[in-house]
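Standup notes
- HV: blocked on the assembly model, inputs below
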Amino acid sequence: MNEQETDRQLTVDLLIKNALVFDGETSLSAATVAVKGESIVFVGYQTDFEKTSWLVEDKVTEVLDATGLLVTPGLIDCHTHIVHGGDRSHEYALRAAGRSYLEIAASGGGIKSTVRATRQASIDALVRLARPRLDRLLDRGVTAVEIKSGYGLSCDSELKILEAIKRLDSEYRINIVATFLGAHTIPSEYSGQRDDYVKLVIEEMLPAVAAGGLADFCDVFVEKSAFTVEEAEKILHAAQQVGLKPKLHADQLSFGGGAELAGRVSATSADHLEYVSGDGIKSMRDAGTVAVLLPGASLFLGDNENAPARRLIDGGVSVALATDCNPGTCMTENLHLMMTLAMSRLKMSAEEVFRAVTSNAAKAIGLESSCGYLREGRRADIAIFEAKTLADLPYQMGRNLTRQVYVAGQLAIDRAAS
Ligand code: NIG
Ligand code: FE
């Protein structure tokens, strides 16, 4: 085979030209992204592309002129609770009338209310309820999603939620990462017997989750209404012993020492962090724990406390952003709105915000070697937005500027066509 024939086999399938490209770390203007099959084969300037051996054939290559458009890695929502039954709009109304989240939780509402609805739902029903939520994420350019259990709080119902997540993963081409959150709160039937519930999580739930290969991570909610640091530490050590990596809901509604614990157990991420301490930030930095900030939850709760994004970033911690989509504290799949809140309320730069929903979000769910970057050799998960600058997307608050979304090189969303 001569050299020309070798070249002919290297035809590009999709060529995106003249784009503002954000590659997961920085941006390049007037850039080109080329895709072959499921993979990215080139990211850079057109003149450099022309020096490669990749061919653009009129008949086979789709050429997309992206003048005035922004091209990014598929976005990543690295903290969601989208598999659940019921809704809690009545609690939202109660909060508007002055009741607090913790008061509502203490009187049997909150997480326990969603647990009742989720226990009653079948796997089929849970999958059916979650599909439109995933579709709405995809419609805004999200191609990787973390989903937590945590509304079952019994061995059977936690496994049921994780099975539903597994089913969604087999139905959708986007990447789905499952997190076991059996330690979300103490269920009513264990009130007054918290040690027994912790024992159930450690001795029955964790081994069953690990045996079924149903989750990559184990998360614990450290809060007055949920678990203590000591309980969380025990659970996360047991999780590590069965091969699940630690995560934490930490310092969300009050300071609780969760970020310090995250560092001690080398958690992959600690999430929320509105009330994180200086020691907590240092502990996370030393352990390489990612801070996942969820500014939609404080907005939805009407809480004025913002996570200290600047102190985290300046302290050397990687910051990611996520929706936290859940029926109690943030009922939205709008990741773009989180980007707006991060600029307006957390004072993050547009570039920091884009890193927070691409490369840093990938790191928060252990996908940094496969997702979150536009790089040669990576899977072609690509989002294209009608934005002229990085800031334009968060700036156009609430609008959906998504134009096309590619998952593994295939067109999954085409809003330009509709
Ligand atoms: O991330 N913080 C704990 N878990 C959820 C809320 C759960 C609920 O209220 O249903 C959160 O905010
Ligand atoms: Fe959460």
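- HV (later): unblocked. The CA atoms of residues 15 and 34 lie 5 Å apart. Confidence is low (pLDDT under 50) at residues 1-5.
- Next: hand off to the docking folks.
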